[in-house]
Write a structure and sequence with these properties.
With about 150 residues, this protein is mainly alpha-helical. Helices cover about 80% and strands about 0% of the residues.
Length: about 150
């Protein structure tokens, strides 16, 4: 019985097609199979690369949007302005738009304070005085405008 099984295995092995024959047959039947197989590996290799790029871009955008260290002159400032420009149309009601503009102003104030902290004290004081002068000039201009409007109405 053992000899018979051994002989049957030999016959089966000798009558089975070789792996080279199978590969050639597969290529004739499916000419794009090898390319598809290679493209699949390429796609699978690109998935982690794109995931990493997405992760980093979301992190960079969040940092740029939230950090007061990203101010005018910083490489990420354009990204911050772009994100604010994208957010602006989302606020449709006047109250929401005013609230958004106030948040933008408070961010700009925080950016300015952050930049001021990094300056030497004498320059910081000079800039503070200039800022106060500009604020007074704006307030006076606004008061003049309201005075002119009330004069015109009378």
């Amino acid at each position: 019985m053992y000899l018979l099984k051994r002989e049957l295995r030999k016959v089966k092995k000798s009558s089975a097609p070789t792996s080279a024959f199978k590969r050639e047959l597969w290529l004739k039947l499916q000419p794009n199979a090898v390319m598809h197989h290679r493209r699949l590996h390429l796609r699978l290799a690109l998935v982690p690369v794109f995931a990493l790029m997405l992760f980093l871009s979301l992190g960079v955008g969040t940092y740029a949007y939230a950090s007061p260290a990203v101010s005018e002159g910083h490489p990420l400032f354009k990204l911050k302005q772009g994100l604010e420009k994208l957010e602006r149309p989302l606020h449709r009601s006047p109250e929401a738009r005013a609230e958004f503009e106030e948040r933008v102003r408070s961010r700009r104030r925080a950016e300015m304070e952050h930049r001021l902290r990094s300056l030497p004290p004498d320059i910081r004081e000079e800039m503070r005085l200039r800022f106060e002068e500009r604020q007074k000039a704006k307030a006076e201009a606004a008061a003049d405008t309201t005075t002119e409007e009330s004069t015109i109405e009378n």
